[in-house]
Amino acid sequence: MFVRTAAIVAALTLTVTGCTGTESASGPGTEGRIAFLDYGDFGGGSNPQANYNPYLDATRLGATEYLFEQLVAYDSYGCQAKPWLATQWTWTDPQTLVWKLRDGVTWNDGKPFTAEDVTFTYDMLKQHKALDVKGIWRYLSAVETTDPKTVTMRFTQPGAAAFTLFGEIKIVPKHVWSTVADPVTYTNAEKPVGTGPFTVKAFNPQQLTLGRNASYWQADKVKVDELRFHKADGGGQIDQLKLSRGEYDTNAMFVPDIKKAYVDRDPANNKYWYPSGGSISVYLNLTKAPFNDTAFRKALVPAFNRQEIVDKAQLGYVKPASQTGLVVPGQAEWLPKDLPNQGVAGYDPAKADADLTAAGYPKNGAGKRVGKDGKPIAFSFRVPGSWTDWVQAQRIIVANLNALGFTVRAETPTPEAYENDRAIGNYDAVLGVHGGSCNMFRNFQEPLASDQSAPIGKKAVSNFVRWNDPHTDQLIATLRTATDESAQKAAVADLTKVMVDQVPVIPLWYGAKWFQYRTAKATGWPNEQDPYAGPSDNLLIVTHLQPAGTPAK
């Protein structure tokens, strides 16, 4: 949801404490590189300490994203796996995955990177379950070194559904971590050793500075000498002011009226791109009439004014969502080729009215929509009362439904009550979020698989609408086991047809991934015209940046 912030006070005075010794004015770096780039927050909680253990999500510092690398790097916008520490991977059968590792990679202490480091890393996660935050050992049965440049992974079941996780598991050096008494409490604070493009240069609770790793295996692509991260203030107001002044080269925050507060301050250099995330959707309780009628649900698809929700409730920052459940245009290649408008439905209340009547839900003499029992249809629509953007969206949704003759009550419980009631099925209609990741299996399994549901009164895992369809389950099972991309795309295309033809949920808009950037010092940031990566794909981005003024390649 949006960060709720008060207006920025014009007279706000900013004092930044730093003791890295590198707070010089911007200028060209060594050999035509960028001297430094200023980034936003570096994590670590409210009282950050030096912690470069990449598996301690709650307390680690953001430096780990630049210190350690993984076998593959995902372009999270287009959902493409890029060779990284591994140059290729092959499924020899649905339960066996063989990785070929890159030559010429060294740790920043000069030691060579080998298959033993990969095997050690995964075995360490197996032995210390607290470190396996991605749950990779739910799927693996063994990880073996075949030769110094080959790793073989064996799965307890077909493993394709777990593949995207390999883009998130950071590989650590065996020669360092094998000497650690307890990896679960190890902060790795002193000169952390990684294969990544940067090393830790300086740290204090206000600023984290990383220096370029000259021995990095693709150092020729890293055109930045330093990255400087700054601790965010609690309410966001100081950070918003610093962003508007151009003090950050990139950040990721919600800003009211981004054009006025940021872009208009320096139109030549201040840019933003808010690519789409998960689908915010209408969840109807499918155990109740009339929501259990496919024709009723399908008639509702054009009933919602998605563009008005985008403009008024989401400040124009996002886009209407596709009924398919996929994020378009980034995931468009997974769609059926003959689908109009990539599955994004327009607002057509006249069609909704006609389709509802044709489905057996006419209006009575008083203009009220009635069910097949002849009684007026009345139900509640709930969103958390403190989520102001959802409350504004709720007003539009309820107005759209009431205009069709329904009697809809807007309810705004606490977030805790909302989440609990949605999980146990104690609702008529609510909003929910699903999809948005590059794991197509999870994108459909979580909202639609029957094994993610539960009887009314029991907490469902994630299938809160209680969709129960054997054909859907079969397609999800196929997607779980398919190692070939063409087979995966065929299953996804069929699942999008389930979404369009049977309407288990009704997507309205996409959640935004906030991303602001400046081109005064660096160009080559991902954007709508060149969406080579998502905003969080740090390794892809930092190896793509060029000094401002560099001719385009």
Automatic annotation (TrEMBL):
Residues 81-451 form the Solute-binding protein family domain. Pfam families: SBP_bac_5 (PF00496). InterPro entries: Peptide/Ni-bd (IPR030678), SBP_5 (IPR039424), SBP_5_dom (IPR000914). Coiled coil: none annotated. Transmembrane segments: none annotated. PANTHER family: ABC-TYPE DIPEPTIDE_OLIGOPEPTIDE TRANSPORT SYSTEM, PERIPLASMIC COMPONENT (PTHR30290:SF82), PERIPLASMIC BINDING COMPONENT OF ABC TRANSPORTER (PTHR30290). This is ABC transporter substrate-binding protein. The lineage of its organism: Bacteria, Bacillati, Actinomycetota, Actinomycetes, Micromonosporales.
